[in-house]
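One chain shown below:
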Amino acid sequence: MIDDLPNDAKSKEVVRLWRAWRTVHEMVADREYELAEDEVTISLDRFRDEYCHPDGTVNRAKLQFSARPSDSMLRKNTPPATASNPDPVPDCGPIWVEFLTDKQFGVGQIRQFAKYTISNNYKTGIMVTHVPLSPAARKSLASVENLAKIECFLEDDLLVNITHHELVPRHVLLSREEKIALLKRYRLKETQLPRILQKDPVARYLGLKRGQVVKIIRVSETAGRYASYRLCV
């Protein structure tokens, strides 16, 4: 148990969770949800003050938050108006993020988390766990896809923000209108675009859905700044 660890080990655990906490906030902000700047850039000292027990251990039960989509995010996720649907509804909404404390994660934990997410009208739920999901639990994620998007990240996968690495180019999600304009401009069908898998680390970071297109901006010493496009599949 972490309560029995010496102080230096507890301090390392605090730093580890602080880094994961910051990365998940950066991820939510990069998806264009509304978050205050001080939530994203929380200092280690403030994290200790707000989220640690008196004995120095992290209170994981307090590591949870929600956020609303920004106007920009709503625009990108709203289908174009048509004669049959003149007032389309965005296919995004509030997000719920929680660091779970369970020692193992099976179908029961997935169902419990999904039930909370759906009953509280969140469109997306992110589970941050310190142990991997069981194979059965991972399969069960698909059973609630039509009600809410449930994502799972390991704490260890959030210790570093992969999009900050110098070798990872910038990825920008296109709106539906921008996607249509892109296909029209180059006279392409959607299936002719290069692909990015939904399980790609950056696609997971951005929460990409199948059918969405990202613009990937690279910088080359010879070609300068150039862009390519990928369809999420």
